[in-house]
């Protein structure tokens, strides 16, 4: 299961504790990773894994790999000690590939695979206040693919995280990426906290903060960031100023038209590609609105029960172990992802999903010529995906994922505690 939202505690926080409030970490995964049956004991708060594509035929249950990969500590774990055990194990199969990467620097951590291929461990202790992404792949005795993913964050020197910043310091993101702070504790004096955070852009765009609730403060300009600009986040922490910066890459805005069943990808104002898609069915239409890619996963398990979709016998409406090329668009579970089980005639012709946007793909996702692989390889965290002409009548909540741009600017500014 993919998780990423901060686990929240309910004790009051004010400017008086801001000295330990802002540690620059990240909220969600940014790499080309896989996910599956990781140990969730480290901080799973129950965020859904997404709506898989509903099609006339789905992958047969008996074809699923018997191999079960377990990552310890589990996905979303925080305050991991630098000497705490980190391990990847597999039952009923063997590991074929494990990578552990420090997300901010991209440095891969060396590790050792056991002789029998059933376990992997890093070769050295971890660094403090660092976010790591672990991606593991394996297979069972019949060669059927299995995958698992976990993202963990090690403890800070002060051993306390009261706030988390996304995106991370030093990253490059798309033009739709807001600056997002998630606070573990309820903020009662919002003006005091916000006054110690300044967000600016080299483009000169005015940037304003907006409180979605007592735990979340986002910053953005009126329109998307200017491509190639640098965003600077300055935080006064315990009387000492800390700075984080991230770069805005090229502008890429992809528009999904649920009526024509095509997606047009526009980069830096020029049409790059048109891709046939299959979006939400009449029963489960895709949200209309501006969404932002917040996570990328090479493979992800999608189970209908995680979003309340079950059949009469209580079984999930779908359960697909390794959906390829999956990119999260909302916290509630909307993804744009590869679909290898749908007939080619579906794409560009019929809307068949439970709310996601499906692109043609192959099992395993290892054909780079397929539309899903192309879009995955040509997308980055922070890119905008706009859905229009869907039959959905429910307004997409701006706080659902990174959907901030769906809020009018006047309302956005009204939600600031200092402007």
UniProtKB/TrEMBL annotation:
Coiled coil: none annotated. Residues 1-28 form the signal peptide. InterPro entries: Big_10, LD-transpeptidase, LD_TPept_cat_dom, Transpep_catalytic_dom. Keywords: Acyltransferase, Cell shape, Cell wall biogenesis/degradation, Peptidoglycan synthesis, Signal, Transferase. Transmembrane segments: none annotated. Residues 252-388 form the L,D-TPase catalytic domain. Pathway: Cell wall biogenesis; peptidoglycan biosynthesis. Residues 34-65 are annotated as: Disordered. It comes from the Bacteria. The active site is at 337 (proton donor/acceptor), 356 (nucleophile). This is Ig-like domain-containing protein.
């Amino acid at each position: 299961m993919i998780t990423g939202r901060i686990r929240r505690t309910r004790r009051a926080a004010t400017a008086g504790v801001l000295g330990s409030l802002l540690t620059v970490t990240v909220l969600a995964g940014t790499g080309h990773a896989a996910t599956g049956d990781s140990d969730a004991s480290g901080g799973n708060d129950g965020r859904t894994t997404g709506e898989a594509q509903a099609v006339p035929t789905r992958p047969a249950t008996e074809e699923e790999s018997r191999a079960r990969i377990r990552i310890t500590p589990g996905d979303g774990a925080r305050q991991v000690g630098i000497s705490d055990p980190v391990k990847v194990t597999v039952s009923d199969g063997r590991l074929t590939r494990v990578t552990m990467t420090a997300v901010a620097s991209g440095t891969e951590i060396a590790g050792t695979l056991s002789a029998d291929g059933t376990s992997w461990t890093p070769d050295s202790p971890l660094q403090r206040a660092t976010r790591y992404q672990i991606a593991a792949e394996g297979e069972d005795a019949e060669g059927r693919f299995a995958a698992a993913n976990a993202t963990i964050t090690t403890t800070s020197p002060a051993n306390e995280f009261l706030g988390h910043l996304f995106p991370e310091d030093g990253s490059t993101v798309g033009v739709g990426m807001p600056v997002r702070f998630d606070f573990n504790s309820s903020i009662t004096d919002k003006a005091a906290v916000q006054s110690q955070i300044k967000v600016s852009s080299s483009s000169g765009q005015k940037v304003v903060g907006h409180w979605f609730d007592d735990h979340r403060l986002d910053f953005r300009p009126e329109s998307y960031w200017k491509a190639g600009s640098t965003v600077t986040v300055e935080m006064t922490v315990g009387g000492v100023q800390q700075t984080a910066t991230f770069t805005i890459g090229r502008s890429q805005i992809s528009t999904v038209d649920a009526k024509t069943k095509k997606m047009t990808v526009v980069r830096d104002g020029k049409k790059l590609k048109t891709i046939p898609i299959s979006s939400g069915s009449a029963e489960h239409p895709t949200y209309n609105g501006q969404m932002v890619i917040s996570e990328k996963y090479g493979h992800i398990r999608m189970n209908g029960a995680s979003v309340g979709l079950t059949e009469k016998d209580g079984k999930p409406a779908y359960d697909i172990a390794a959906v390829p090329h999956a990119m999260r668009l909302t916290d509630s579970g909307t993804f744009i992802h590869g679909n290898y089980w749908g007939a080619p005639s579906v794409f560009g012709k019929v809307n068949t999903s439970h709310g996601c946007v499906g692109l043609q793909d192959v099992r395993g996702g290892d054909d780079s010529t397929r539309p899903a692989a192309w879009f995955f390889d040509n997308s980055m965290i922070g890119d905008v995906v706009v859905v229009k002409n869907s039959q959905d009548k429910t307004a997409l909540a701006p706080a659902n994922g990174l959907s901030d741009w769906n809020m009018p600017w006047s309302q956005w500014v009204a939600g600031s505690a200092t402007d």
